[in-house]
Amino acid sequence: MGDQFASIAGTGPLLLAIAVAAAAGLVSILSPCVLPLLPGYLSYVTGLAGSDLDARDVPEAREPAEGAVAVKTRISGRVLAGTGLFVLGFSVVFTLLLTLVANIGFALKTHQDMLNVILGVLVIVLGFGYLGWIPGLQREVRISKLPAAGLVGAPVFGAIFALSWLPCTGPTLAAVAALATTSGQTSRAVTLSLAYSLGLGLPFVLFGLFFRKLLGVFRAIRRNSRWVTRVGGVLLILVGVALVTGGWNHFLVWLLTTFNFGQETLL
Predict the structure, then answer these.
(1) Cα–Cα dist 54/158, whole Å
(2) Are the C-beta atoms of 181 and 104 separated by less than 8 Å?
(3) What are phi and psi of 132, to 5 degrees?
(4) What's the chain look like in SS3?
(5) Contact indicator for 98, 182 with CB cutoff of 8 Å
(6) Residues 6+ apart with CB under 8 A from 117
(7) pLDDT tens string 110-154
(8) What is the chain's Cα-based Rg?
(9) How many CB atoms lie within 10 A of CB 47?
């Protein structure tokens, strides 16, 4: 019975874990240390200035309709390629990190209870840091040498973003890593890292494609981004406390016995 309990608790419903990972990525991009930099990132990975992005949405009156459509198509294609390559760059780094963490979890499987406590304490500390209560945990590591702006350097810049901004994205990424580590399965770690990367990257791609239309939404979220951080920090602390006390395992068992997720949701 004990082995069955550990198996259910450690694996958990994959759909729930994917939703948590995607939400963690969304919280990361809405945080005050990432959100204000999105316009600069967008310009860097596409090689386009803000006026170029505006030109796509507001065609010049003197240009023929065919010319305006061609300009829109060219710029939109460049934006999609640049943002997609940027997301690919940090997705590879996050996937490698979570895969490493999951394999460490597999190696320490016999000490699962102790591992959960350690992970829980780490997530709690990072949650306090996300709330700004621990100085220095939201500082990024500056890298002076950057690749050339444009499509060629976009994936490299994405990888640099993943590494240099770990102090900022680390708290939410740690929660996803905790979900991956409890199972110690590489395939689950890859799935959760991709979900986290999509939660972080998809809003960036949409912001690039609908730059002018989403500027108002961007400014509104930016004004209230600290609330997003506070809610995210509180949720991280709750997840950490659940891991330390064993409440996370009990929650997963209750979830699986109450709702029919089916075997296909387990990995």
Answers:
(1) 24
(2) yes
(3) 85, 15
(4) CHHHHHHHHHHCCHHHHHHHHHHHHHHHHCCCCCHHHHHHHHHHHHCCCHHHHHHHHCCCCCCCHHHHHHHHHHHHHHHHHHHHHHHHHHHHHHHHHHHHHHHHHHHCHHHHHHHHHHHHHHHHHHHHHHCCCCCCCCCCCCCCCCCCCCCCCHHHHHHHHHHHCHHHHHHHHHHHHHHHHCCCCHHHHHHHHHHHHHHHHHHHHHHHHCCCCCHHHHHHHHHCHHHHHHHHHHHHHHHHHHHHHCHHHHHHHHHHHHCCCCHHHCC
(5) no
(6) 243, 244
(7) 676 787 788 788 888 877 877 777 765 555 555 556 677 788 889
(8) 21
(9) 16
pLDDT in tens, 36-77: 888 888 888 888 766 666 655 555 444 555 556 676 778 888
User: What are the structure tokens assigned to 203, written together?
Assistant: 């809003």
Of the chain, the percentage scoring pLDDT greater than 90 comes to: 12
Q: Cα(22)–Cα(29) distance, rounded to whole angstroms? A: 11
Average pLDDT over residues 163-170: 75
pLDDT band for position 229 (cuts 50, 70, 90):
confident
The structure tokens listed for 231 are: 């809610």
62 vs 205: CA distance, rounded Å: 30
Take residue 264 and report the two structure tokens written for it.
């296909």
| Amino acid in position 26 | L
